[in-house]
Structure formats: C-alpha cells, structure tokens
Amino acid sequence: MDFVKLSAELSFIGALGLTLNTEEKYQLGLSTLKLKEAERFEQIYFWGKVLGIEDDYYVCFGVDQRSSDEFPSKQYFWCNSDFKLSSLPTPKPVNEDALFRTLFSGQKELVLDDSGFTELDKLAALVCAVEKSTALCPKGAYKYSATGQVKQNNSFKGLTMQEASELGSYCHVRPITKQK
Q1: Model pTM?
Q2: Within 10 A of 94 (CB to CB), how many other CB atoms are there?
Q3: CA 29 remoteness from chain centre
Q4: Cα–Cα distance between 162 and 94 in angstroms, integer?
Q5: Distance between CA atoms of 10 and 15, rounded to whole angstroms?
Q6: pLDDT tens digits, 143-174
Q7: Residue 57 to residue 50: CA distance in whole angstroms
Q8: What is the 3-state secondary structure (H, E, C) of 67-118?
Q9: Which of 44, 45, 65, 85 has the most CB atoms around its CB within 10 Å?
C-alpha cells in the first residue's frame, strides 16, 4: 500500500480488526518519509505488520525504477515499535515448514537454531516466501518500456469494481524464475 493512501485503504479492512492504530500510521508515515529522502526512492510501500508475542514487526519496501535490470528491484525494510526502519537482511535458505510453525516473539536477535538463524532471518524468509507466492498487480498497472524495462504505467487509473472482482484482472509481478 502506498503510504499516501494508507489511511483510506486500511479502512477497507479495518472492520476485520486488521489495521494500524493512529500512532502506528503516524510513526510509519514519518519513518518512510525519512527513508524515502535518504534512499531516493520514488515511493515507499507498506508491506504488512507481523504480529509478535512481545513486539510486532512492520515491513515496508521501496521500488527502484532506476535499476538497470529488466524488472524494478525491491528493497525491504523493517522496524518494530521503535519505528526506526532498517534494511531487511537477505533471506537465508530455510526449511519453511518447520520454521513457520512457531510464532514470532518480537525479539530480533533471538537465535532459533544451532546455525545462528535469528528471528530477523525468519522475518526475511517469511517476506520472501510470501512475495514469491503472492506478488500480484492489476493488469495494466505496469508496462514494458522501449528500453525493455518494466515500469509503472502512469496512465493506469485502477480497476472498476467489476474488474477488481475477477481473477483474470491480475497478473504476477515478479522477475521470471527458472523452472526445475
């Protein structure tokens, strides 16, 4: 979710109890403005909130349209209740079935196994697994540029209510992966 539209968009799911309180929205808004300025991202997006027993994690990402790659790169950031966004580490290979059966504690340095795998590594693995499986966007939201890059389509104004309810109106938005 675009931080500019965050409050309005969260109202759609607020009835389910899945929302951010006023302080969280305000603190994340300030943190992302600082990050946007420091990292020179065109836009910072809210990825989600991961609930922990003692503290929660907030995940955001910036899209680098200036990347020389064919596909825009995403850089992920995290924070907890201190709202100081830091770069999320690169995910390490992990047995997802065993790892995701336990709750998050909210202690980033908590070591989860003998290899030194921490809860922050678990958060990075979770974000990677979710992105790999569910990264969708409305058809037409991105376009192929003349230079062969995938760029945000500035003329895209969104989907109608009817289109939004149809599965065919969406496509995966991730770099192509090699099949085994």
Answers
A1: 0.79
A2: 20
A3: 15
A4: 40
A5: 9
A6: 877 877 777 888 999 899 899 899 999 988 77
A7: 5
A8: CCCCCCEEEEEEECCCCCCEECCCCCCCCHHHHCCCCECCCCCCECCCCCCE
A9: 44
